[in-house]
Design brief:
Blueprint: E1 9-12, H1 16-25, E2 29-37, H2 39-45, E3 51-58, E4 65-73, E5 93-97, H3 101-110, E6 120-122, E7 126-132, E8 138-144
Parallel strand pairs: 1-4, 5-8
Antiparallel strand pairs: 2-3, 3-4, 6-7, 7-8
């Protein structure tokens, strides 16, 4: 038995609309939104009384998906500080290939997003940076140089 594909990555957020807007600014498309609750979701999460809203975002090529989840109950808990850096244990970043890193960063900065470090060049291959997205998640951006 082998993995068929990676279906999606899930991020728990407090402000679902702001998270949707952030990832839409990156060029992702909203695939759909839905409220989720019931015994099956309680059992799969090992939590009681789960009531969430989810938004599924899709990359423009259709191959990558990101599930944004807003918990109404039970209350969310924070596992780490919102300003955790790249050397913190656990899932730290999601990387997106972009066609123009400067324009992408400018668009995100206009929405209040901050760079974690700075835009840097790796050899003659990529320009890279990290920005802090919704709920402190680090979003990596890479522009391939031609």
């Amino acid at each position: 038995m082998t993995i068929q594909r990676m279906d999606h990555v899930s991020v728990v957020v407090d402000d679902l609309e702001a998270a949707i807007a952030f990832f839409a600014e990156l060029g992702m498309e909203l695939e759909g939104e839905a409220p989720i609750e019931g015994p099956w979701v309680d059992r799969v999460n090992a939590l009681d009384g789960v009531r969430v809203n989810i938004a599924m975002m899709r990359t423009p090529d259709g191959h990558g998906r990101l599930e944004l989840t807003k918990f109404h109950s039970p209350a969310v808990v924070s596992a780490e500080p919102k300003n955790a850096l790249g050397n913190t244990l656990g899932l730290r970043s999601i990387m997106f290939a972009v066609d123009d890193i400067d324009a992408t960063v400018a668009g995100l900065r206009a929405r209040g997003t901050e760079l974690v470090g700075e835009v840097v060049q790796y050899q003659d291959i990529y320009r890279l940076c990290y920005v802090r997205g919704p709920e402190g998640i680090i979003v990596a951006l890479a522009e391939q140089l031609s």
